[in-house]
Amino acid sequence: MVKRTPPPPVRPSDVESDGHTARPSTHHFFPPPSEPWFPWLVPLFFVINIAVFVLTMYVNDCPANAGPNRCVFYSYLGRFSFEPLSQNPLFGPSTSTLELLGALESKLVVEEGEGWRLVSCIWLHAGAIHLLANMLSLLFIGIRLEQEFGFLKIAILYVLSGFGGSLLSSINLHSAISVGASGALFGLLGAMLSELITNWTIYANKCAALMTLVLIITLNLGIGFLPRVDNSAHIGGFLSGFLLGFVLLIRPQFGYVSRRYIPAGYNMTHVKSKHKCYQYLLWVTAFVILMIGYISGLAKLFRGQLIEN
Question: What is the per-residue DSSP string for 39-99?
């Protein structure tokens, strides 16, 4: 997506003077272009996910549980070999191992009070294929966002989107486990869409950028209807990220200049406000809807347990 490029900044000498008093010219002032953030958090998430998968395969120990002859690639991987494809076609561990290490299971979250699974499951993956697909998406989407918005906002966005995906998944799935970073990744996609909408004034070729992003999101959501894919996590993560994007990724409108870049004597009535009114409206609306969604989702998930108590 291409952003509109402001003209070169106007120097203080460009303020016209009649020899006695300075009067502002009709020029606009622009701050120096901001430097992109150095992306280190997304690569760290990448390493963490790889390390967790390696740990998962170590704990799984297929040869000791299923026998060396049944494990996939036992001669090359030994203890880290995969479960038989009849049990896990994604080249990964057993269901019991994933459950042991923190997979999302609604019954354990509600009846056993293991709410930490709503977050721990986003660091686990069902297999090497699952891991590869998610990590490629993480690097492709996440690094760009971290360069533009910094590590703190992307960390909040990633974790809360993953939580939102887990929450909706645990409400809809009652007899299966769920793992993977897909909810968090769909949150990044959702945030890209809301960022485009709320920062509409700074983009060139707006419609082309919007249509491209909508097409990518639609194709990814369509994958969720394939067998063994938890589309509830995708939708929950996407909605969380979409709302969080309005809150976290808001930018100043095109043409805004901080006062520290404007020389003395310039007519401040011509200076644009930092944000447009619709940006503030979207921020408040998204925040309220997000909080209502999280609270109502948790209430629905734990409603049966609260009634029993």
Answer: --HHHHHHHHHHHHHHHHHHHH-HHHHH-GGGSBTHHHHGGGPBPPTTT-TTS---HHHHH
Of the listed 182, 194, 232, 240, which one is catalytic? 182
Specify the residue for token string 């906002």: 153
Bridge-partner residues for 3, per DSSP? Answer: 203
* Residue 113 to residue 108: CA distance in whole angstroms: 7
Whether the full predicted model's pTM is greater than 0.70, yes or no, is yes
Answer yes or no: 234 catalytic: yes
Task: Tell me which of 125, 130, 234, 275 is the catalytic residue.
Answer: 234
Q: 241 with 190: CB under 8 angstroms? A: yes
Per residue in 192-239, pLDDT tens? 999 999 888 777 676 777 787 788 777 777 766 655 567 889 999 999
As given in the structure block, the two tokens for residue 283 are 């921020």
